[in-house]
Amino acid sequence: MGRRGVPARLLAVALLVVACAASAAAQGASEPSIKVFKALGDFLGYKPQEGDTVFIPTDEAFGVFAKKWGLNSTSDLLQTRYLDLLARLGAYHVAEGSAPVKAAGLKDAQQVAMIGGNSLKIKKAGDGAISVEGASNAARVVQPDRVTGPALAHVIDSVLVPPDVYPSLLDAVSSRNDTKLWAGFFDKDEGVKARAADPAFSGTYFAPNDEGLREYARLDNVTLKAAFEDSKDLGLIVVYHSLPIEYTLEALRNASASQPLASSLQIGGVPEPVYHESNGSSVNLWGQLNLGDKSTIVAKDILVGAGTLHVIDFPLIPDLAASASASVAAVVRATPELGTMAKILNGTGILDELESPLFEGTLFAPTDEAFAAFAESMGFDGPEEILASEPLMDAILGYHLIPSAYPADALAKFAPFTVRPFTGGVLRFKPAGNATAGGNATAAAAVNATVNATVVTVVGGQNEAGIVTAGLDAGRSVVHTIDAVLLPESVFTSILSALEFYSASSVLQNLVADTPGLLAAVSDPKTNVTLFAPRNEAFAAMGPNFVAAASAPAANASRLEGLQYHAVPGARFVPAGFTLDGEKLPTLLVNETLTVDLEVSEDNVTKAERGTVRVVPSGGRAANVTLANIVAGRSVVHGIDGVLIPKSMGNA
């Protein structure tokens, strides 16, 4: 990929031409200067061949040529990006044959074959004046029969430009007979036209030919004007046919078909892909929405500026439904009843992905009313308190987002079925009557469901929600608004509801229920503590009689103290809630503390901080946090693998 391979023979000829200047320039200042050739010859490093006839442009001719290519001076040609151009120019200025042809031997209307495979036409006037006509322009011979070492030169006043070489992309599509329609499309967008006219273009462009455009319109049963000229997206379609990297046909044939080409059209900062496959001696190309209509390169390796143009026989169609304004984040912001969800998106690390229209997924977005009810159930003063807890926001968003796009009709078609959200767990969909499609959607959030479309109820691990507005179009994703916040297996309204949910905490749940004064606290969502919750295996490790003794009515006081020792004031999440390794935390048991050993590392994939916490009691064995950050109202629960014994109760 990148730079094309220059045919060795063409390079040799280009270098032969320029190297001839070394001896030609030495013949005298009165002759037209061809020092540019010497500079190019030194740059390319080749020597002339015996018996060649060379048409050498003057320095002034090269100066004019350089300006056409957008260069400040001829010295700017001394760049590797122009090797191909120099090779083709050289091949177009050297005649076929083993013996030099003097001016006297040139005849009017004679076709002179050049070593690149093209030919030049000689025009000879009655007074002997000679001019040379090429494919794109003509030149006058200003000094015939100039001896340049082993070669014979006819010095000319213009650089002859061969076929399939143009100073810009716009020049190419405008000049060619097979791309006139496409050339007209550049006029519809001034920005696109300016870029196409820039000789600095150095990538790849695929220009559909006129026949291919007419065929596209015929298949789509529309006029060309309706298909392209009247399209507000015409400028984007034109840009989609451009690649920032240069590919010759050979490079395209050798490129892996499993890796799409990155176009110059970016949506949400991500290049739209162009798909490709080798097709014998050519290459097939297609866009996101070409379906079965692939295009084939029918004219290859046309030089435009410092880039390459290929003519194709069918246009490439991108997925412009995924426009820059249509993304999950944009749709949420544009929907009035999703104000709290918009704030949650802004407060989480996944926002950048959800800003891209190329993101593919489904977001079940609770309405502001649903978040208000959720906040109340959690003991919060309002939805704003949700935004103060990043772990809570992450848990909620991750549970309401699934990695596939399910429009309203797909939900209805496949229900009942289950999916796994991004943060794990399960969501289940069951048929549930009709819902209103559309709601308060704006133009940026077009609805793809129909009124009275059959939709579903979304069933989470702890509760369920109905769909309020179905099918807000969000690029390659879909947003459905729902009437409740679905509770994942890491979010509960109280400590008690968390203990009741996890069967591995049944022993602790029973001990709490048997302790006067604790049941009310763990049932209250406003309780604000961090609970280190021993799992059932931790109690079993304390011996066969430990739980029975702790459960006895006579042990109420010591049981209360033991349970208080497992709680510290305030909600401390891992790792942000534990700032110091070796930090001593006061517990609810008066005059007793816990020591926290903290190890913080970075997730290799998400780069987010994660922590390993070891809790060291004052009078017993240490315990490791094995399940962190279970939100329980205003509290947080961490599952541990040991029972914490305070010094005041003796060593265990």
Please supply descriptive tags for the structure shown above.
652 residues; eight-stranded mixed sheet; 28% helix; FAS1 domain; alpha+beta; 4 domains
Write a structural description.
This protein is an alpha+beta fold. The protein folds into four domains: 156 residues, FAS1 domain (Roll); 147 residues, FAS1 domain, CATH 2.30.180.10; 162 residues, FAS1 domain, CATH 2.30.180.10; 158 residues, Roll (FAS1 domain), CATH 2.30.180.10. Helix content is 28%, strand content 26%. Strands 7, 8, 9, 10, 11, 12, 13 and 14 form an eight-stranded mixed beta sheet that branches. Strands 22, 23, 24, 25, 26, 27, 28 and 29 form an eight-stranded mixed beta sheet that branches. The protein is elongated and about 130 Å long. The protein starts with 7 loop residues before the first helix and ends in a 12-residue tail after the last strand. The N terminus is likely disordered.
